[in-house]
Amino acid sequence: MTASAWIFRVAAALLLPAAALFAQDRQAAATLVLYNTGDPDSKPLAEYYAGKRGIPAAQVVGLDCPNTEEISRADFNRTIANPLRKKMVGEGWWKVRNVSNGRQIVTDTTIRFVALIRGMPLKISSDPSIGNATHVKGVPIAIASRNDASVDGEIAALGLEDFTPAGLMPNPYFGRFTPILDETVTPGLLLPARLDAPTASMVRAMVDDSIMAEKTGLWGWAYIDGRNITDGGYAEGDGWMRNLVEMLRQRGVPVIFDDYPQTISADFPVTEAALYYGWYAGDLNGPFATEGFAFKPGAVAVHLHSYSASTLRSTSLNWCGPLIARGAAATLGNVYEPYLSLTANLDVFQDRLMTGLTLAESGHMAIRGLSWMAVTIGDPLYKPYKAWGDFPDRRQPLNPYRLFRGITANARSNILNAILPIHEAARETGDSMFLEALGAAQADAGQPGAAVKTFESAMSFANTPAVQKRLEMEIEAAKRRMPLEERYPIRVVEAAPEPAEPETGGVQPVPGEFETESKDSPLVKPATVVPAMPEEIPNLPYPDL
């Protein structure tokens, strides 16, 4: 390497952290932290978070709200919407212009992110006095007549030009790629995310784990739980799951994909879980409900269900609270019935996270509507994949997940092209993850025979009972996908040779003395009997979205 090239690389390495720090400072300066003055834990949590993220103290704001998760529309307007709007204008965070009918529209803003701290109300109950929403034409009356919503969804839309209280509004940020600080089209748009959990200590853990994961990287397994639905109204949700599997594998994340109608069974070992996406059960279940289960610090875990965030104060009811209680740092949910197409598009959400955008940006890019039911739970500034672009620290032990990602990239983003490097990595590291991930990809690609052999090879590197058990279950599942003739090969029995004529000197043999074995003789093994295919387990009666 030439001296000039060496100097350039050193300078680039020094500039990268500075650029990242500048971006982080910009985001901190654009963040508002809201807490409830009526909750004794809320202000200390707000100050803890602001201190960790370097958010100015003047942007930590207390509101005198009811100390309940559900509030009325009148209470929302009186204790949150009106004082927040007044604060935004009074502090100069919003620049506004007067328009007709005494209304004001936001023309410029310095605040984009909003951290709602535990203690802030979660959802707004339905108000029968409010008429049907007119923001979106052509929507079914069942949607247009709804005015219950998440507090978060209403705050997001509070500064938009066409905002009126209650009723579904189009989200101008849906499907976008632009970081919110570079977004100039909708200056009134706010991106709330909620630091909320069953206990205050869990909120602190969310903050700490998010910051640590940004430094070390979110590495581990992804578990995707589909339902094998390919047509009908539910197909959209299952399409998100299949898209997630393809996307994650292309980007070098080891994936285990369960496409059976039921949720992942309780006896299926889930280890090293950095990502989880699944559907569709009302309350936490399966391996996640087993005693001692924990996600990797910084994990993103989402279960698609109509009422996944109906409450965040329980460690067992619904999904969002229990997932956070088991160590997840970020999740998405719905406080009331959202209808499938108006829930977060999970593949969009994960894609934006992996491009380096924040949790709040990714969560809002994934939802079609505001003033609706969605909540994004976690540190709004959290970037799970911030460290993925950093140079690895050679002083640290080899990270097998980073190595797996590099092998995938070198194989043109297709792990099926990397069979030899995967086997070599398994031998060099002694880690079964490489072969298990390859076997899972082979099984999903319609290569169950190859998957069985790969899983069996992985068994020799499995160093925990949990991984050994999971591999055994994956081998059996792959075998069930194999053609019958491969699963149960028929053994061909050659006919016994004709006996030689005995030298009897003309004396006839005793009848039966030299006869070949009959078909009933135990010396001849009959061909293997192919068992009947087991009946498919019936689908469960899932609640309707």
Description:
This protein is an alpha/beta fold and 545 residues long. Helices cover 35% and strands 12% of the residues. It is built from 16 helices and 17 strands. It has a 4-stranded parallel β-sheet, sandwiched between helices. The protein has a 4-stranded parallel β-sheet with strand order 12-11-13-14. A hairpin with a 5-residue loop joins β4 (94-98) and β5 (104-109). The radius of gyration is 30 Å and the shape is globular.
What is the element layout, followed by pairings?
Elements: H1 3-29, E1 31-36, H2 42-53, E2 60-63, E3 70-71, H3 73-90, E4 94-98, E5 104-109, E6 113-117, E7 123-124, H4 141-144, E8 149-150, H5 151-157, E9 169-170, E10 191-195, H6 200-216, E11 221-225, H7 235-250, E12 255-258, E13 273-278, E14 300-303, H8 320-325, E15 331-334, H9 346-354, H10 359-365, E16 369-370, E17 374-377, H11 400-410, H12 419-429, H13 433-444, H14 448-459, H15 465-481, H16 484-487
Parallel strand pairs: 1-2, 1-6, 3-7, 6-10, 11-12, 11-13, 13-14
Antiparallel strand pairs: 4-5, 7-8, 9-16, 15-17
